[in-house]
Amino acid sequence: MSNKRDLKRTINYVCSDLFSECIATSLYSGKQNREDAEAILTSIIIVHNDYIRRISHQEPGIKAKIYYRSLIKDFYKQVSEIIDQISNMN
Questions:
Q1: pTM for the whole structure
Q2: CB of 41 closer than 8 Å to CB of 22
Q3: Cα dihedral angle (66, 7, 2, 70), rounded to 10 degrees?
């Protein structure tokens, strides 16, 4: 990531893809688990908002490079957990 704008754009793309994948999975799966789908969609929105805010307001006292690497690592960790939840909806 070369700058904050690119990082925010990437987070927006990943979260929108997760959101649409969750909706598609809930519509086309044989099971009707509306509560599960709504919980996953809510968690996607929370993750999106949290990481966009964290990009805009860096914690003081931490070097920028270390902070953003940690932020990216944490984001992709949460994304993989959400992907697992979506795959378990089937």
A1: 0.87
A2: yes
A3: 10
